[in-house]
Amino acid sequence: MGSGEPVVLLHGILGSEHMWHAVAPLLASDYDVIAPTALGHNGGPPATAAERPTRFHHVVETAERQLDELSLQRAHLVGNSMGGWMALELALRGRALSVCALSPAGMWSPQPGASDASSSRGPLRRSLRMVRATHWALPLLYYSRRIRQFALRGAAEHGAAVPRQEALRLTHDMLACTVADDLLAGDDHFAPVRTLPCPVTVAWSEHDKIFPEHKLGSAARERLPGARYLVLPGVGHVPMLDNPQLVAATIRTAAAQAGAPGAAAAHSTP
């Protein structure tokens, strides 16, 4: 929706383009807003036999093909969690005007079986198991604000405020993700970058329970020298659920960095 420079919104693992439904209209007055759904996720391209078990590089390659299909050589890339990692990897392939990575995944240790990698994926695995075990009862249970607060505690700081239908949509997306187990079993990580290919903003959620800033934020700073780094107050791992206005404002500021005087020099490491 909208018109102007392209902004591509990339969702996190187990989600879909619907994760951006409250943010996209806030950007559409100034940007051409595009929200694709990732490989193997609800409504996205199905994983082929050659892409099973699905690994993170398959997801990135599919996203790049989606950009090609849209005739987008470069765009402002925005992503949350897995989507933030996707945005960074696509930027390294020369596809970004700017990057806004919201609590990006992949910042755990590169060592196989490292404790921070395991602990980062643990809440996602537990959430998926809970949804698979209780999905038949959730349409009734989600009438309770208290249960929504508990069920969405990993994604949102204010889960009780998430409408019942929205909570059900999130769980439906989780159940419909055919590559969840593959991706959660992978040992990929984001490698350090010496020179950033474009202006990069890393915005961590203050109350992130999936990828806590105090555990992974320092790794993000080390692997992305020269990036603009900030913490978004009052929001959980999926900040679009708690405060879409704050997320939209953060995206606008990040995109504006691409046109700021001296931007080309500012994002390079001496």
Quick recap:
By secondary structure, the chain is of the alpha/beta class. The protein has helices at residues 24-27, 56-69, 82-92, 115-134, 138-141, 145-151, 164-176, 180-184, 213-223, 239-242, 244-256, 263-266, and strands at residues 5-10, 31-34, 75-80, 96-102, 200-205, 228-232.
Q: What do these coordinates show?
A:
The chain has 270 residues and is α/β, with parallel strands linked by helices. Helix content is 41%, strand content 13%. The protein has a 6-stranded parallel beta sheet with strand order 2-1-3-4-5-6, sandwiched between helices. Mean pLDDT is 93; it is low at 262-270.
Key traits:
single chain, 270 residues, alpha/beta, Rossmann fold, six-stranded parallel sheet, 12 helices, 6 strands, disordered C terminus
| CATH domain class | Alpha Beta
In the CATH hierarchy, the architecture is 3-Layer(aba) Sandwich
Structural class: alpha/beta
From the 3D structure, determine the CATH topology.
Rossmann fold
Helix content: 40-55%
Strand content of the residues, in percent?
5-15%
First CA to last CA: what distance? 39 Å
Helix tally equals 12
Q: Numbering strands along the chain, what is their spatial order in the largest sheet?
A: 2-1-3-4-5-6
Per the principal axes of the C-alpha atoms, what is the gross shape? globular
* Rg: 17 Å
Structural domain tally? 1
Largest sheet features: 6 strands, parallel
- CATH superfamily (homologous) name: Alpha/Beta hydrolase fold, catalytic domain
- Mean model confidence by pLDDT: 93
